[in-house]
Design brief:
The protein is of the alpha+beta class. It is built from one helix and eight strands, in the order αββββββββ. β2 and β3 form a beta hairpin. This is Competence protein ComGD.
Length: about 140
C-alpha cells in the first residue's frame, strides 16, 4: 500500500511539472506570435511609406514556415516566422508605386493555440485586418 502511494505521488508530481512547462511554452509561443504581428505591421507600414514617398513598389513573398520577405528596389527585409506559425499556401503580394494593393486573403496557421489567422487585405490603400479563429 505504501509503495502504491509513493508511486502515485511521483506520477502526480511528474504530471504537474509537465503541465506547468507546457503552459509556459504555449504562453511563450503566443507572445512570440504577438511580437511577430507587431513587427509585420512595422514592415508593412514601411513598405507603404516607400510606395507613397519614393514611388517604389514592394513585393511581399509569403511561403511555408521560414520567413516573409519584403523586397523593393533598394532593399530586402526578411521577417522570420515563429516556430509555431506557417503560411498556408504561396502568396505574392505587391504594394504598387501608388501605395495600392489588390484585395486578397492570406491564411497563416498557428500550432500555439490551434488558430487560423486570416490577413484580409482590403480594397485599395494597403489596409488590412487580422482575424483569428480556432480550427
Amino acid at each position: 500500500m505504501l509503495e502504491m502511494l509513493v508511486t502515485l505521488i511521483i506520477v502526480a508530481a511528474i504530471l504537474l511539472l509537465t503541465s506547468m512547462n507546457s503552459r509556459q511554452f504555449q504562453q511563450r509561443q503566443i507572445d512570440l506570435e504577438r511580437h511577430f504581428w507587431q513587427t509585420f505591421d512595422n514592415y508593412w507600414q514601411q513598405a507603404l511609406f516607400t510606395a507613397r514617398h519614393e514611388h517604389r513598389e514592394t513585393v511581399i513573398r509569403m511561403t511555408g514556415t521560414d520567413a516573409i520577405t519584403f523586397r523593393s528596389n533598394r532593399k530586402t527585409q526578411t521577417l522570420k516566422l515563429p516556430d509555431s506559425m506557417s503560411v498556408k499556401g504561396d502568396y505574392r503580394l505587391t504594394i504598387r508605386k501608388d501605395a495600392t494593393i489588390s484585395p486578397q486573403t492570406v491564411t497563416l496557421l498557428s500550432s500555439a493555440g490551434n488558430w487560423r489567422y486570416k490577413m484580409i487585405i482590403q480594397m485599395g490603400w494597403g489596409i488590412y485586418r487580422i482575424e483569428r479563429e480556432t480550427y
